[in-house]
Amino acid sequence: MSIDSLSVQDKSAAPGADAFLQFLVNLVNNGSQIESIGVTLQMGGMMVSGSIVSGAEYFDRFAASFTNSLSTVDAETRASVHTSLAELGDVFRVPQPADPLPNYIHLADALFFAADGSPVAGQPTLWRGRTSAVDGFILGRMQSDTAS
Description:
Distance between the termini: 58 Å
CATH architecture: Roll
Number of domains: 1
Strand content: 15-25%
Oligomer: single chain
């Protein structure tokens, strides 16, 4: 394989994650004074709009929401499941390095929209996605008429 063929492959390869978006995620993950950032992500013909939150907050909220739904399980088991899920966020409870940049973005109060901006039915929810799957983004959240 020649150097020329490598450069052609590199140019045709899909770009990785947007370093600026990863930087914003890292700001929130580091627990600085920025606790969340409103954002709308364009991904494969859909838009996801919500607030970037730290991985720690995401896993804390996820653990609470998930264990609250386990109504048929005894309290001790629910507590154990909650602890196990919340511990997944422990990696975000320490300062995050500048390199490597984060591979995942966590949104709270996420809403979903079709490409034309029409809302997809659903309640605001927690959402986690790969930063490399984001095609573009804008600062600020989209609002749905039903999300009041």
